[in-house]
Every structure is written in C-alpha cells, then in structure tokens.
User: Fold this.
Amino acid sequence: MKPKVGFMGLGIMGAPMAANILKAGYPLTIYNRTLAKAEPLAKLGAKVAASPKALAQDSQIIIAMVTGPEALYELLFGPEGAAAAFGPEQVFINMSSVSPSFTLELGKELAPTAIRFVDAPVSGTKKPAEDAQLVILAGGNQKRVEELEPLFLTMGKKVIYCGKTGQGSMMKMFINLLLGLMMEGFAESVNFGRLGGLNLETMLEVVSSGAMNAPMFQVKATNIRNKTYPASFPLKHLAKDAKFVLDTAYELGAPVPAGQMLLHLYRLGVAQGWGDEDISAVMKVMEHLSGK
Amino acid sequence: MKPKVGFMGLGIMGAPMAANILKAGYPLTIYNRTLAKAEPLAKLGAKVAASPKALAQDSQIIIAMVTGPEALYELLFGPEGAAAAFGPEQVFINMSSVSPSFTLELGKELAPTAIRFVDAPVSGTKKPAEDAQLVILAGGNQKRVEELEPLFLTMGKKVIYCGKTGQGSMMKMFINLLLGLMMEGFAESVNFGRLGGLNLETMLEVVSSGAMNAPMFQVKATNIRNKTYPASFPLKHLAKDAKFVLDTAYELGAPVPAGQMLLHLYRLGVAQGWGDEDISAVMKVMEHLSGK
Amino acid sequence: MKPKVGFMGLGIMGAPMAANILKAGYPLTIYNRTLAKAEPLAKLGAKVAASPKALAQDSQIIIAMVTGPEALYELLFGPEGAAAAFGPEQVFINMSSVSPSFTLELGKELAPTAIRFVDAPVSGTKKPAEDAQLVILAGGNQKRVEELEPLFLTMGKKVIYCGKTGQGSMMKMFINLLLGLMMEGFAESVNFGRLGGLNLETMLEVVSSGAMNAPMFQVKATNIRNKTYPASFPLKHLAKDAKFVLDTAYELGAPVPAGQMLLHLYRLGVAQGWGDEDISAVMKVMEHLSGK
Amino acid sequence: MKPKVGFMGLGIMGAPMAANILKAGYPLTIYNRTLAKAEPLAKLGAKVAASPKALAQDSQIIIAMVTGPEALYELLFGPEGAAAAFGPEQVFINMSSVSPSFTLELGKELAPTAIRFVDAPVSGTKKPAEDAQLVILAGGNQKRVEELEPLFLTMGKKVIYCGKTGQGSMMKMFINLLLGLMMEGFAESVNFGRLGGLNLETMLEVVSSGAMNAPMFQVKATNIRNKTYPASFPLKHLAKDAKFVLDTAYELGAPVPAGQMLLHLYRLGVAQGWGDEDISAVMKVMEHLSGK
Assistant:
C-alpha cells in the first residue's frame, strides 16, 4: 500500500508535481497559503489541510516545494507549523531551492523531531514538471533516497543521488548557475547579432547546427520571437537563486565572476518590473540596455 | 570540370579543410608561411606555391584561412601578396575569423582588382574540420554563394547564407560570443560545484539530463576529467576573437557585459601561458583564481 | 566624574582606540579573547576582565570593536557573554563594521536587556586610530549620541550623526564601498600605466596635480613603491566588508556592478594568501593577473 | 619675439586654451570646422584660417585639440589638410586624447614632412582650461618639450614630462582610467547610500573628512545635488577614451576588469541619450539601473 503523502506549496512547480503524485495513486493531503490554488487538486481527490501542522499529522511523507528559505521556515516553524507534528516515523523532503548551508542548518533544527530528512530539489521548469520529466537531485541517506525512488519517479524521469545532506541543494545551485549563465549568454549574443543586422531564425539555425545546441535555446527562442515571456521559470526566482549561489560561492571561496554579472543583470530585470516574467525576459534587459 | 582552388593557411583548421577539398577531386595549390606544414598535403597531390602571388596566378578560386586580420593582410598585400594577381575571373573567399568592419574594409581594398569576394567563416573546430562537418557562414552575393556550395560542402555539412558582405563575419562573431560564454559558464559552474564537493561525473549526468545539454559540454568535459587540454580551438584565438566581438559591439552600441568579463578571463589564461591550449583550459583559469 | 568604560576587542583598530580612551582619563576595563593583547594596556592602568560578562558588570558604557558579526555575537551572547549583564542604566556602543540589517536585528535582540544601544562604526584605519583622528559614524538616538561626544572625541576628530539605529552601519558600508573602489581603481590604473612604460613617481605627480588627488593615494603609493604591504586595513577585512555591502545592496535593490567586481578581486587576493596584508596589496592581485 | 601659433579645434577645451594663448600675447591663427565657434576669438584678435592647410602655412607651432583620432586625421590628411604644409622648421603638438599606438603611428605618418612632433594631452576639464590650470602631459624629445614650456604654461599650471613620443598619450590614458573609475565609484556609492536612506550632505561630509577626499567629489556633488549635469567633460568623450584605454590594455596585456565595467556603464549613459551631459551623469545611469 502506498504511503500517505503531504504536499505543501502549490505554485508553478508544486501544483503539477502534486498532481502527478495524486495521479500515481498516492493518498495526498495538500496545503497552500492561498487556498484557491488548492481547489483544482481537491477536485481530483486531494484532501486539503487547514494548516501545515494538520498536514503533517495526516502524512507519512511530507514534501515542501516553496519559493525559498523564508517561506519554508514559515511552513515548518511558523504558527501551526508542520515541524510541531514531525516524528521519527515520518520522512520530510525539501524540494524547494535553498542554499546548501541553509539545508544543513535546517537539518540541525529538525534533528530534535527525529524526522528523517532528505533534500531533493529538482532540475527542470514548468513543462517538465507537468510532464513528470523532472530530474530529482537528491542528498541525504542513500538508502532512504532509494526507498523514495518510486515516489520521486511519479514527478520526474530520473533520480540523481548527489551525496550527503546539502549536496542536493549544492547540485541545484550548480545547475541553476549554469542555466542562468546560458540564458544570459544566449540573450546577450542574440541581441548583439540583432544589432549587427542578423536575422533571428538564421542565428537559431547556426546554433542548432553546432556544438552549442542545447534544447533550452530553441524553447526560449519562441519567447524572443513572440516578444512575450510567459513564466516557465520566473525571472525573480532566478535572481533569488543567483543570490544563494553567490552566498555559497563566498563561503566556498569559489570565484564566480560571470555569476556576479548575472545577478546584476537579472536584478535589473526585476527593477524594471519584469520579475514575474520568464527568465528569458533577460532578453528585454539586453534590449533595454541597448536603448534600441 | 572542377575549378582550380588555391588554399592559403594550413593551421589546425586550414590543413584538414584543404585536405577535404583535395580528396573531393579539386586541383589544389597550397601556400603556408611555414613550408613544413605543406608537406603532408603535397604528398597527397597538392601543388605547393612559392608565394601567395604564385598561388593566386595558378587558381580560379582562392581561399584564405588564417589566424586573423594581420596574417590575412600580409598574405594579400604583403611582399609577393596574392592580391597583385587577382582579377575579375577569380573568386576570393575569406574563411578566417575577422570582424565585420574589417571584412567591409577588405572588400573596398579588393575592389580595384575586380575579384569576386565572399566572406565565409566557419562554425566548428578541429574535429568537425577533419570530418567535413563544418557549418559555413556565408556573406556576399547570394547567387555566387550558391554556385560555391559544392566546394563548401567538401569542407562542411551545411552552408548558411547570412546576408551581404560582412554578415558572414558578423554571424561568426555571434556564434563565437555564445561559444565563449558557454565555455566559461561551464568552467565556472563546474569549478563552483567542485569546491562545493560535487563529483564531476554526477554534474555531467545532471547537465546531460536537462535542457542545458549541449554537445560541447560532454566533449570539453573529457579535457577537464583528464586535466589535459589539447587544442581543438586554442585559447589565444578565442581571446583574439573576443576582442573583435567587443570592438564590433562598441561600434554597434551593443551591451556585452558578460562578453567583457569573458575577454578578461581568457586573457588571464593567455597571461598564465596557456594560450596554445584548448579554450576549455579556461577551467585552469577558474582553478587558478580559486587558489586551490 | 568620567563614566566607567569597558572596551572589548583589541585588534589593529581596537587597541589604539582603547589606549586613547585611557589616556583621556576614563576608568577603563578591557577584554580580548587572546589575553596577550591586553597586556600593554594593562600596564598603562587598564583593568583586565576575565570575561565579557565580567566587563559588562564593571562598566557604565560598553564598547565593542571586533572583526564582524560572528565575533560580536560571541562576545554578547556566547558563554559568559556581556549581554547577560546588560541593564537599563548602561550604554552599549558597537563600533565594529557590520551590515545595517545585522545592526537592526542586534537592536531587537538587545531590547529585552533595556540597555541603550548606539551603532557607531568609524571611518579611518590604523594611523588615524593611533592619532585619535577617526571619524565616528553614529546612528541611534541623537541626544544620546551627543552625550557620548566627549568619549567619541577621545578616539576621533569628529562625530557625524547619520540617523536612526542602523544608519551608522549604512554609512560605514557606503564609505567602505567607496574606499574599496578607489583602492582597486588606483591599483588597476597604476598597473596599466606600469605595463605601458610609465614611471610610478610621474604617475603620482600627475595624480597629485589634479582633481583626483585623494590623501589615500599618496599613502598607499608608499606600499606600492616599497613592494611591501603592512596592514593598515587588512585585505581580508575589506573582502568581508564588501560581502556585507553586496548583501545590503541586494536587500535595497541597489545596483553595485563595480562593487561586485571588487569582491571578486579582493577575494582573489585572499585566495593567494594575502589576506593579512594591507588592502593596497590589491596591487599584487593586478600584477598577478597580468602574469608579469 | 613670440612664435606664431596655429590652433585647430575650438570645443569645450580648445576654445579656452586658445584664448589663453592669445591673452599671453602670441600671434594666433585659428581653425574650426564649424566657423561660428571661431568668432569670439576672432573678436579678441585671432586670425581665422580658411583651412587647416592655410593655418599651417601661417604658423610656426601648430596645435590640435579635437575629439579623437578620426577628427585629427581629417584635419591633418583630409582635403586641404594641415600636413600638406608641414615642414622641418615647424612644430606640431597634438593635445587631443588618442591612444599611444595611434600617436606612434601618427609620428610615422608625419615623418616624411620632417615636422617636429610632440604629443601633449592634458589633465583637467573645462574649468581648469578656462583658468589656465591644466596639467600638460608631454611626450617626445625632452629638450623640445622644455623649449615649449612657456607656451604650455599659458594654458596650464604645470608641464609633466612623461617620456618618449606616445608616453604623453599613455599618461592621459592612465589618468582618464583613474578619473572614470573614481567618478563611477562615487556615483555607485552615493546611489547605494541614497537607497539605504543616507543623506547626500552627510555622505559628502564623511567623504570630505577622510582619506578618500578628492577635489573632484565636491565639484561633481554639485551636479548630483542639483540633478543637472552641464558638461565639463562630456560623458560620450569619456566613453570614447575608455575604449582607447581598453584597446591599449589589450595590446599591453594589462588586466582592466573595472575599466571594462566602466565602458559598459558609460555606454549605457550614451544609449540613454545622455552623451552630451557631464561624466557625472553616470549618476543617472545608476539611478536608471535602480529603477527608482
């Protein structure tokens, strides 16, 4: 019999992830600060909890997928927080993007509850979340991660074990740094080509014919072509993750010169009011800087 | 009957390109400043010219593939330069990487000879050059480019027409900017992950499982794994191309914040004496900056 | 009669500051984690406390001058911490460099003790500290700051009131950002001139003849001339302060593109093992990057 | 008897410099592309030449003070250019800002005329030019520079001999790099302080009380206070000079990480249409990036 799962956080990523767990036949309890977002899943059979604590009391595996450390902290340790109902028989999986050091600290703060803790952020954005094609980046006890694999595979296509607690978050920082740099690099290059008189479609043909051809370029080019940037991964979230990357790099003594530039540029986008648009709206930042 | 081709510049790229023309049955005359590099091709049946001018006198189509504007200028207008033998019945194809403004200027300087001029740099490095898998980025008269397609396809898999004279060079700047940014971004991210305790192979698995997966990453990872960087595309050449990109961006008023960072970092590599290693040796720059 | 002062932290800055308080006739109790540093002052008549708590019990005004938030936190809230002995009749002055948000948080954590809290970091390095020529950047209750002016003026030449609690720290961030940028700018320019064949003394003459002439340049040029960088302000401390600046800038939404570059460059110096040398050792970073 | 001087280029800098030569009693012939700018000086007794060539025919010492290499080239070698009338009895002084390599090339191109060539750009902006308080940065034959000192001192307060031909221009690059970095650093810091709630006047008081106090800050603060940026040194000219600095740094292998950032930021100002405002309008760039 499948374990009872509690899922907290029903945003762009969380909603389809929870839906995929439910479709796979797991008994599911959900919680979201804004209740309206829980309704579609409730109609599909999910039970709606009145508080994080109530959700935790009702679940064997508790998952959190929220926008960052503050939101996560609130869910766990705020009023009617989930941690108050955590115990040694349960598993808590944090799938939200946070820094490795935050993950380690969280592990310490959860230790008194004796809950088993796994950090498992994901690689992938809205579409892979909907299609259960995410890649799960898991850190913590390896045997426990293996036991959770069937559950993870309702949401994703693959589980990659990254190491002890915190290494899942570290891998997420790594992949988001690369993602951010590639997105910015693509926008900077395409804007440069545009000002030099090149045609977007011809540039894309050259990219797709060579060793730089990454799937994301063709996807993001659609937004650039249409001059509309519906959020698959909101710009403001990447700006936030970039800050975590820089903080982590500072602790590690890792040079991240382009990463620093990245934060600067994505924040420009947020300052212009484009934070809720897709990360590919960094193209608008480049155009804005061009003044033409 | 196939036209007589003259090929000047037999470096990492030029040598295999010329060999592929020869294999395809074109009568081939070659010239290289250092004669030794001409020998392997001479053994295969190429005729060796004593000077660029002698080569031009002997060829209907003249190709140049050298390391930059200075070398190209010397070949064309130096002592016994090729341009002295150029005439209206011939075609001159520059496949070297130069800036669009240099290409336009070159076109003007060649105008008195009445030679037909095509700018056609390539996307691809050593291996694609050897395998005749380059992508030809052609600028100039479109009908003429089409007529040259059979010749181009002895060296590459595809010809992409980019626009009038100079647009081939512009496209090359575009794709090299993207290449440079992706290479640096990959090295910066992998070094960050390394210092955070991640395993190289696990990082590669994550990259190859997601939307950032570009062929170049797996290829360049081999160098990083082996800690040896044999030049497929020498670091110093990318540093030089980055300077052309910045000069072009300045003329266009195009913001290239990450591109500027790029030049800074690749030049650090050159300053450390790694200019003749592959562009992936930017990984050594990142390690060097880390001090560990 | 002068109030009893307790001074915690006897480093490069703290030792001369405490000495100046003592010379001005204030009864002084001192505490330092490493006891040896307290001896010179003890010989001059200062009383050495066995713990921060003991110091606090013995003082009406308690001053802390340590290297950052962790050290400060330890002094106040660690074992035998000073805060345990704080009460409404006392004043606590933090003169250490910390971020404004840390200062605000600290204010909240001290609130239960009812101690009166003033944040008062300083502008100036070792020499001004010795000569009682510091500039005190005070934040908090304005009347209280005025009452403390005689005490501040034993250490400095001027008190500048910056606003409510946290604004002293904000002003310190501002001036350290400017200091860091000017120091880096000077080193980058002088290294550029050096590589271009210019003489150091001639460059200094040009600087001193124009509108860019700041006193720090002539002082720091001495280190560059002698190729030895005794710490007046250690490089690693500026790197740390630069991180606080970036964190603060992130919270404020303030663009600090050069500030980010700064952190990158100063951290390179720390990575090379020059963290205990003066901030002017950023000149060594520039030379190192040059490879010559 | 004073030698006959010809002065070409009557912009923000050239007009007051020429006026000071005239006031000192030198017979003066002037030329400017836009004739209107010559009128005020003509009223004071200057002779207006119809072309650069006519000016050269009429002068023993010819001075050029224009906005860059293109304008200078045009004056010397364009139609009715000055160089056509140059001979061994004359001296040509270039006071315009150009790169050292351009200066060296110019020297070669002038060699056939046998004219004696001195490169002598200046440190200082509009006000020092009006007050004859410029600093002359001279390169070339040292004895010749000494002979010209009386003439230089009609325009400036000091002549600094920098070395052989090209070193005057190199010193100008050096000082403009420092100027650009300090101006940007000041704007970045003040904008950061502003967003953190600090008062402009309090920030200025802190700056003026410490080792960072450079005369330019108080002058440029006036523009920031008034939110109006009348050009003492136009932003677009500094952007141009920054490009010369980067080109020179590239040739020298000199790392200029902050200099690259600088060019990026000043060009943003030009892209926004602020190129004719003062360099202190980089403050507007910072505010613009802040989005508030």
Summary: The longest helix of chain A spans residues 167-195. Chain A touches chain B through 72 residues (CB under 8 Å). Chain A has a mean pLDDT of 96.
